[in-house]
Design a protein that fits this description.
The protein is 35% helix and 29% strand. It is built from 10 helices and 11 strands.
């Protein structure tokens, strides 16, 4: 095998709770993550020249070691003495810096692809440990599906599959600094926390209405004041028929859960037109 193509799927947060700050400077998190069908295409090919080369459809996206996909190839190449080089083509569809783990998903896809391509037979636990070195969301992006994530996000417990639904994702055309969002949340007292156990129970019952009622992300308390459009998009999605709305990750993407594609399409069209934003996607819950 000389090449492999992998779908790197986006994630949304059904819940996100910050429960403390760790000695290493990271925040202690407890959150429920869910994969959706929206994906980047990641093509990985062996080449003779001992280099890592990345091509992408986004001209402004870094293609050196600032790119997590590059870092993934680099660590596998060095750690397992891979001869020759590797060519990676990223066809990006997942919005960048959106709270949807697009970069982490690409990184996980390259780890997976190189393990298969070079027949390395790296065990799941070892690959997850490498993934954590590269980013807090990367272990989950390797796992995918519905999961409770704790610690930095690396302590993963698989949950039953989330009930199927249509998802409208809408990312305002603004940049959000994850570090700034977490700094802001540290300065806020008295916000309410997600009912994580209630969400787990709703998922176990396969009740999409109950899941929608338990959506909660404490980082909204910091992100929405920085970007009020997040709140405005949530309201419009709700007004247009979403059974639940939330911001994913540290933002700025807001999403709505819909029971049928027609209602989701109308909501997506309205949000795109009203807020004049490009990154609006209709997708679905993805379960393995």
């Amino acid at each position: 095998m000389d090449y492999i193509s992998v779908k790197a799927r986006a994630k949304i947060n059904l819940t996100l709770d910050v429960t403390g700050k760790r000695p290493d400077g990271y925040h202690e998190l407890r959150m429920i993550m869910q994969t959706v069908e929206l994906y980047d295409k990641v093509f990985v090919k062996k080449i003779e020249k001992p280099v890592i080369k990345i091509k992408t459809n986004l001209e402004w996206l870094p293609t050196d070691n600032r790119n997590l996909a590059y870092k993934a190839a680099e660590v596998i190449k060095e750690r397992y003495d891979i001869p020759g080089g590797v060519f990676i083509e990223l066809k990006k569809t997942i919005p960048v810096a959106a709270g949807l783990a697009g970069g982490s998903a690409d990184c996980a896809a390259v780890l997976y692809a190189m393990n298969i391509l070079y027949n390395l037979k790296i065990k799941r636990e070892e690959l997850a440990a490498i993934a954590l070195e590269l980013g807090s969301d990367v272990p989950y992006c390797l796992m995918r599906g519905t999961a409770l994530a704790e610690g930095r996000g690396e302590i993963l417990t698989r949950l039953p599959a989330c009930p199927e639904a249509w998802i409208v994702l809408a990312k305002p055309a603004v940049g959000m600094s994850t570090a700034a969002v977490y700094k802001a949340i540290d300065a806020i007292d008295g916000y309410s926390h997600p009912d994580t156990e209630g969400m787990i129970d709703a998922i176990k019952k396969s009740d999409i209405n109950a899941v929608a009622s338990k959506l909660s992300n404490v980082l909204e308390n910091a992100s929405i004041p920085m970007c009020p459009m997040i709140g405005d998009i949530k309201k419009m999605l709700s007004d247009m028929g979403a059974v639940g709305v939330l911001m994913s990750g540290s933002g700025p993407t807001a999403y709505g859960i819909f029971k049928d594609k027609e209602t989701a399409q109308k909501a997506a069209d309205n949000v795109k037109k009203t807020f004049n934003i490009r990154d609006v996607h209709i997708t679905k819950i993805f379960n393995i």
